[in-house]
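Dear Dr. H.,

I hope your travels went smoothly. While you were away I took the liberty of generating a structure for the chain from your last submission, since the lab meeting agenda had it listed for discussion. I wanted you to have the full record in hand beforehand rather than looking at slides cold. The sequence, exactly as received, is reproduced here:
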Amino acid sequence: MSLRGSFPKQSVYYEILCGVRNAISREKQIKGGARAKKIELINGMNDAGWKDIYDGL
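The corresponding predicted structure, in token form, is as follows:
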């Protein structure tokens, strides 16, 4: 059973990249990384306590 659909979704991190292949490669790199590194990435961009940044994009 997957828990993916049972949690609210928010945008807490983004990157601007040139090209779809670069974006897919970066996404795979992030997904394959350690949880601590992902948290570090989010905190580096979104220091307001993981607030949803979608409206500000």
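Two observations you may find useful: The radius of gyration is 13 Å. The chain has a mean pLDDT of 83.

With kind regards,
E. W.
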